[in-house]
Amino acid sequence: MTAARRTLTPADLAPYARTLGHTLDGVTRLRGGSKKGVYRLAFRDRSTAVAYVWSPDEDLWDAGPADPRDPFSHASGLDLFTAAAHRLAAAGVRAPRLLHADPTHTHLPADVALVEDLPGGTLEDLLDGDEAGVAETGALERTAALLDTLHACTGPRFGKVAVVDNGGSSYGGSCEAVVAERALSDLDELPARDPRAAAAYPQLADALRMLAAQVRPRAEPPTLIHGELGPDHVRVTPDGDLVLIDIEGLMYFDVEWEHVFLRQRFGRHYDALRTEDAVGLDGDRLRLYQLATHLSLVAGPLRLLDVGDFHDPEFMRGIAEHHLGLALSFLKDAS
C-alpha cells in the first residue's frame, strides 16, 4: 500500500508561480485527483491558477509505468494531458487552458502543468441541486451539444489521442476485442475477492465471450470520446461555459463506450444527452460494453483499495458492491 500523500507546500510550488510572473501567496489541495495532485495556487495580486502534479507520490493507484498503446492503460501524465488539450482545442471543445508545462523535474520529481483556474462548480453540483435551476440554465442541453461537437470528430485508428495523433497504433485488433480482453482480465481478479464472483465466474466469462462474438466488424472510423465522462468531469463557469476536465483518457474509440459510461453516471438525466450521435448506436456493442463496465467498476475500486490511500474507502467499496450486483443481474436478464 502506498503511504499517505504529502500535500505540497508553498515552498514546493513557488517556482511554478514565478514561471507565470507571480509571487505565490498560498496553496490549497483540491478535491479529487486520484491519479494526480491538483492544487490551487493563490498569487499575491489575488489571481489564481491550478497546478496538476503527476508523480508516483500523488497517484493513489500505484500503477507504475503504463504503455499508452494500450487504450485502457493508466491515463495519467503530462504528455497525455497536453495531447488531449490540443485535440480538444482543435475540436472546439473547451478544456482548462494550459498556461505552462514543465516536464523537466527541476523543482519537483514530477511532471507539472499550470492551467487556468475555472470559477464555478461542476455539472454534478448543478444536477444535485434544484431541478428548476437545471432546466433554467439549459446545462443538459448544452452538454448534449458539447457531446455532438466532440463525437463529430473521428480518428484514423482507435487509441489514446497522444498515440494516434503522433502516428502511432494501439494494441488490439478492434475496439470490441480490446474491451473483451480487458473485461476478462478484470473478471480474473474477482474470484479471490468475493465468493459470489467465484461462483458466477464461468457464466460471466461465457457471457463476455458470447457478447463479443455477436459484435460485427465496423467500417466507420473511431470517434473522439472523453472515456470517463461523468457530470463531475464537466465544470460550469458562471457565464455558462462547459469545460471538460480530467481529460488524460481522451481517445478515439467506439462511441458506445462513451454512452455506456454516460448512462451510468448521468442516470435519469441521460435521456437528455441522447442526441443525433446516439441514433445509430450498436446494441451488441452496448451490451458487451455494459457488462465490461460493470466488471471494471468492481475490479478497479477494489484494486485502488488494495494499493492506495483513498480518502473514502467505504465509497469505493460501495461502488464495487453495486456493480458486482449489476454484473450478476446482467446474467439473470440475459438468461
Write a brief caption for the model.
With 335 residues, the protein is an alpha+beta fold. The chain is built from 11 helices and 11 strands.
Helices and strands in order:
Layout: H1 10-19, E1 24-29, E2 37-43, E3 48-54, H2 78-91, E4 98-102, E5 111-116, E6 121-122, H3 123-127, H4 131-137, H5 139-151, E7 159-160, H6 161-164, H7 175-189, H8 195-214, E8 223-225, E9 234-236, E10 242-244, E11 251-253, H9 255-266, H10 283-307, H11 313-334
Antiparallel strand pairs: 1-2, 2-3, 3-5, 4-5, 6-9, 7-11, 8-11, 9-10
Helix pairs in contact: 7-8, 7-10, 8-10, 8-11, 9-10, 10-11
Provide structural commentary:
The mean pLDDT is 92. The longest helix is centred in the last third of the chain and has 25 residues, at 283-307. The protein is globular. It has eleven helices and eleven strands. α7 packs antiparallel against α8 and α10 (283-307) packs antiparallel against α11. It folds into two domains: 10-118, 2-Layer Sandwich (Phosphorylase Kinase, domain 1); 122-334, Alpha-Beta Complex (Aminoglycoside 3'-phosphotransferase, Chain: A, domain 2). With 335 residues, the chain is α+β, with helices and mostly antiparallel strands.
